[in-house]
C-alpha cells in the first residue's frame, strides 16, 4: 500500500504538498520510504514538519541501524533540532530500575545533527513507589504468584474489572488463566494482537473511547472524547468478550451517533 501511494505521488496522480503542517510521533519506528512520502505531503511554503524521535525505542530495527540520516529522506534537520532529556512520564524509581536493565544496551551516543543520538533520560524528580521485581523458577510458579496477587488485591477492594495481566509471550496467558480458574475466578482473555485488527474500549461513562490497532508492525492508540453527550455503547452480552458491528455502525458509533438507528438517520435530508 505504501509503495503504491509513493508511486502515485511520483506519477502526480496523488497531489503533493497537501498539508500545511505534519507531526510524526514515534518516528524511530518509521521506515525511510515512509519519511520520504511524508516529506512530499508537506506544503513547501510552510515547510512545517515535526518529528518526535527516540532512538532508544527503536524496537523494530530502527532507522539508525540502517545508517539513515534525515537528509537522506528529504528532512531538513540541520539547525532545527532540539534534544529533550527530561523524562516526565515515569517516576524517579521506575526510571532508575529501567535504566539499570538497559545501561549496557543503551549507552548514550553522540551523533551529527542530521542523525538521531541515543540520549540518557533525566528524571523530572517525580517520586513514586518502587517497582516490585519477583524472580521465580518457572512460568507455572509465576502464574500462581500472579493469580495470588490478583486475588489478594480483589479481597482488599480492587474490582476484577480494574486489573489486567500484560504478558510478552502468548503461552503465558494459558498458565495464568489456569491458575485463576483453579481459584474459581472469571477470566477474560482478549488474545494476542492480530495484524490489521482493532479493539475499541470506553470508560464507564462512555464519554471517552480508545482504539488499539495492530498495523502489522506495532500497536498504536487513538483516543476520542466527547465534550457533550455520550457514545451510544453496544450492550455486551453476559459471557461475551465484545460486540460485533458493521462498518456503517462502527462509523456512526465513533461519531457519537445512535448507530442502532441507521435506517432512521438515512431519512434525514440535507437542505
Please describe what this structure looks like:
The chain has 271 residues and is an alpha/beta fold. The protein contains seven helices and seven strands, in the order H-E-H-E-E-H-E-H-H-E-E-E-H-H. Strands 5-6-7 form a three-stranded antiparallel beta sheet, with no helix packed on it. Strand 6 and strand 7 form a beta hairpin. Helix 4 crosses helix 5 (171-182). The mean pLDDT is 79.
Keywords for this structure?
single chain, about 270 residues, alpha/beta, 3-stranded antiparallel β-sheet, two-stranded parallel ribbon, 7 strands, globular
**In terms of quaternary structure, what is this?**
single chain
The spatial strand order of the largest sheet comes to 5-6-7
SS content category: alpha/beta
Number of helices: 7
Helix content: 25-40%
Outline: globular
Helices, strands, pairings?
Blueprint (H helix, E strand, L loop, with lengths): L1 H9 L10 E4 L7 H10 L6 E4 L34 E2 L4 H11 L19 E2 L15 H17 L15 H12 L14 E6 L5 E7 L4 E7 L21 H9 L6 H4 L6
Parallel strand pairs: 1-2, 3-4
Antiparallel strand pairs: 5-6, 6-7
Write a concise synopsis of the structure shown.
The protein is of the alpha/beta class. It has helices at 2-10, 32-41, 92-102, 139-155, 171-182, 247-255, 262-265; strands at 21-24, 48-51, 86-87, 122-123, 197-202, 208-214, 219-225.
